[in-house]
Write a structure and sequence with these properties.
The complex is a heterodimer of chains A (167) and B (532). Chain A is an alpha/beta fold and 167 residues long. Chain A has helices at residues 18-27, 90-106, 129-137, 153-165; strands at 4-11, 40-49, 52-61, 80-86, 112-117, 141-144. In chain A, strands 2-3-1-4-5-6 form a 6-stranded mixed sheet, with helices on both faces. In chain A, strand 4 (80-86), helix 2 (90-106) and strand 5 (112-117) form a beta-alpha-beta unit. The model of chain A has no long low-confidence stretch (mean pLDDT 89). Chain B is elongated, with a radius of gyration of 53 Å. Chain B contains 18 helices and 13 strands. In chain B, strands 1, 2, 3, 4, 5 and 6 form a 6-stranded antiparallel sheet that branches. In chain B, strand 8, helix 14 (363-369) and strand 9 form a beta-alpha-beta unit. With 532 residues, chain B is an alpha+beta fold. The chains are: A alpha/beta (167), B alpha+beta (532). Chains A and B meet through strand 1, strand 2 and strand 3 of A and helix 9 of B.
Chain lengths: 167, 532
């Protein structure tokens, strides 16, 4: 089967670990130092799903905060979205709905997977499980990841790849 | 008519049918039953085919103006050609052969010509002083030599051509110049799209207008934005108008040829491999100086000429030196009382090892006489009697028992008859010759002892090395000398005083007519004061 290329966007609030997830996934590296992403950083990774080779072009988009809103033009043409939040910051969980609606405005029907990052700090997690349950009921896949301990990272990208190919 | 009206009245509900039937009836009445059969015949399939055949050529001619006919016929023609080739491959071979033959020849010729031109260029660049300076400069600038040459000889040079899908920023296809140091084109295309998005977003530009140029140092990205794809060239130096026009044309051509594929792009980039040829058209460059076509590679000729001169000069000198040596050797051999044993050359110093009769001209005077423009001549003499000794100069020996003298002569004769054989080309003694050595040693000791008893001067042994006629004279001389040396060393190691041993390589002696095998030998000759 021909190699296909897909654009994937990492979106989410600032400092939830989007860049770290990509770095862990592509380079198998993790650093505790925080560098804020300005604009967008692009990486690539070749994955195979059921004998189909897929070249993922990972657009790591700058985090959203009170002063920076999601630059929607970066989303154009994306085939899949990873919406990343931080389990230790309940406010980021609250932002899921808002970010989802922005993404849906520009990319209707594009697969979206929610990642709750920093699962290595699970003892610090305190958020309303109800929000997550509601997402799952809507058919949205929600996975827990840790870029630091490399837990669930490969699975997260694999899940999105599967959703993109079997949509 | 009246009948038809009656029928109509009779069945008004079935009006249409009855109307048809009435017309038919009327037709039969008016034209007769033959008309019906003629009509049937006219409407039959066979007739249809004939009618179409009559107008087919004309119809095709008219439809040729519409693109639809081509589309409709394409699959049929494809199938027809496939079937035709499958049934008779020979026919298609015969048809395309006259086209393919010249095309292949032309292509091979062009490739060869290019190769020669490239070789000349590489030679010119590597050998010229400018090339060396550039090498150093490239090394100092930390870029590859190839890239430095390009930067010096080209006004501009397109290193990379990227075809990028506009919406996704995914790279569809790219071509790269072999000399360029480029990054992963997929990441470059992604970042380029992100930059486009950023600019459009930040300055509220519409989606239809975008960046057309990005400059970084001496590298410029020129972008031609089409409805579905962006064609970008990365070039060093100022790109001329003609090249930019070519980029625009290529962008249009890609959109024209791949309109559907671009619109329905879903990540499969295989279909865009066909754009390779189009994109390659954009790998343009402009030289600073017009290249001389078919220039003579004078530099290569110069180097070759210098080499030839050097070799010729060396050969000339060597020839003259060998002539001079030959003359010296002849002069020395002609000198009465001297026999040349060996000659050695170290630098300008030519050393002759000679056997000298004590009555001959003193070596010092002779060496002066041998003055030569090429060599400093010196002589190493072995004083010998050569059988020409004036016995009257010696105190008369006391009368010795005749049997002692007879014994002496017998041993002397035995030694003079001794030969040591060698294998072809070898300078070590044959194994089966070794037993002789013990006997010879014994004889030498006996001869020395007998000479002492007879009050004769101590006898010397001349070991004459010989070689077979095969091979060059100088090699034969060398081999024969080595054979003589071998024997001398063997005798020396077994207790014979080196002072009485003279090793002399004679080379091949044509005068000695014997078979080759027996010419590979060392003969022993006793030199003493006794009469034969």
């Amino acid at each position: 089967m021909n190699l296909v290329a897909k654009k994937v966007c990492m979106v989410g609030p600032f400092a939830v670990g989007k860049t770290s997830l990509v770095r862990q996934y592509v380079e198998s590296l993790f650093s505790d130092k925080y560098h804020t992403t300005i604009g967008v950083k692009i990486s690539k990774k070749l994955v195979t799903h059921r004998a189909q080779q897929v070249q993922l072009m990972l657009w790591d988009i700058e985090g959203v905060d009170a002063f920076t809103e999601l630059r929607a033009s970066y989303l154009r043409g994306a085939s899949g979205i990873l919406l990343v939040v931080d389990g230790t910051r309940p406010a980021t969980i609250q932002q899921i709905a808002e970010l989802r609606s922005i993404v849906q405005t520009y990319l209707d029907g594009v697969p979206l997977v929610v990642l709750i990052n920093k699962s290595d700090l699970r003892h610090d997690w305190h958020f309303d499980e109800g929000n997550i349950e509601q997402l799952r009921e809507e058919g949205i896949k929600v996975l827990e990841t840790s870029a630091k301990t490399n837990t669930g990272v490969d699975a997260a990208f694999a899940t999105l790849t599967q959703e993109m190919l079997e949509r | 008519m009246a009948t038809a009206e009656e029928q109509n009245k009779a069945s008004p509900s079935n009006e249409a049918y009855s109307a048809d039937a009435s017309y038919q009836k009327l037709r039969t009445l008016l034209l007769g039953p033959e008309y019906e059969s003629a009509l049937d015949d006219y409407l039959s399939k066979a007739h249809d085919a004939e009618r179409v055949a009559d107008v087919l050529a004309q119809a095709v001619r008219i439809s040729a103006k519409h693109p639809d006919l081509g589309k409709a016929l394409a699959p049929v023609l494809n199938k027809a050609i496939q079937t035709s080739i499958a049934n008779n491959p020979r026919q298609i071979t015969n048809v395309i052969f006259p086209i393919m033959g010249p095309a292949i020849r032309k292509s091979v010729g062009a490739t060869l010509r290019d190769m020669v031109q490239n070789l000349n260029r590489v030679l010119e660049q590597s050998l010229s002083a400018r090339g060396l300076i550039w090498r150093v400069k490239a090394w100092r600038a930390g870029v590859s030599y190839g890239r430095y040459v390009i930067s010096q000889t080209l006004k501009f040079h397109v290193e990379q051509v990227l075809l990028v899908h506009r919406d996704t920023g995914l790279l569809l296809h790219s071509v790269i110049d072999e000399h360029a140091d480029t990054h992963d084109p997929e990441l470059v295309s992604g970042m380029m799209s992100a930059l486009q998005d950023f600019v459009q977003d930040s300055f509220n530009q519409t989606h239809t207008s975008g960046l057309s140029r990005i400059e970084v140092g001496d590298l410029t990205l020129h972008l031609c934005t089409g409805p579905y794809a962006v064609l970008a060239i990365a070039a060093r130096g100022p790109v001329n108008e003609a090249a930019l026009e070519e980029v625009d044309k290529t962008c249009e051509a890609v959109h024209q040829v791949y309109a559907h594929e671009l619109a329905d792009f879903d990540g499969d980039r295989e279909v865009f491999l066909g754009t390779d040829e189009l994109l390659r058209r954009c790998l343009l460059s402009e030289r600073i100086e017009a290249e001389k076509p078919e220039a003579t590679p004078w530099l290569a000729w110069l180097v070759l000429g210098a080499l030839a001169l050097l070799i010729g000069g060396y050969a000339y000198t060597a020839y003259h030196q060998s002539l001079a040596r030959e003359a010296l050797r002849a002069q020395l051999s002609a000198e009465p009382g001297y026999i040349v044993l060996n000659e050695r050359l170290s630098g300008d110093n030519l050393l002759f090892e000679v056997l000298r009769d004590y009555r001959a001209r003193p070596p010092g005077a002779l060496a002066d006489a041998l003055h030569n423009a090429h060599y400093q001549v010196s002589l190493q003499t072995h004083e010998a009697t050569l059988g020409k000794i004036d016995l009257s100069a010696l105190t008369p020996p006391p009368p010795s028992p005749p049997d002692t003298l007879a014994q002496y002569h017998a041993v002397r004769q035995k030694l003079n008859d001794t030969v040591f054989m060698f294998h072809e080309g070898a300078t070590t003694l044959r194994a089966n010759e070794l037993p002789k050595l013990a006997r010879v040693l014994e004889d030498i000791h006996r001869l020395t002892r007998l000479a002492g008893e007879l009050n004769l001067p101590r006898p010397q042994l001349l070991l004459m090395g010989l070689a077979d006629p095969s091979g060059h004279r100088s090699v034969n001389l060398q081999v024969s000398q080595q054979r003589a040396d071998t024997l001398r060393d063997l005798l020396k190691e077994n207790g014979i005083d080196q002072g009485i041993l003279i090793a002399w390589g004679l080379g091949n002696q044509a005068a000695i007519s014997s078979d080759s095998a027996s010419q590979r030998r060392v003969s022993v000759k006793v030199i003493d004061a006794s009469k034969e």
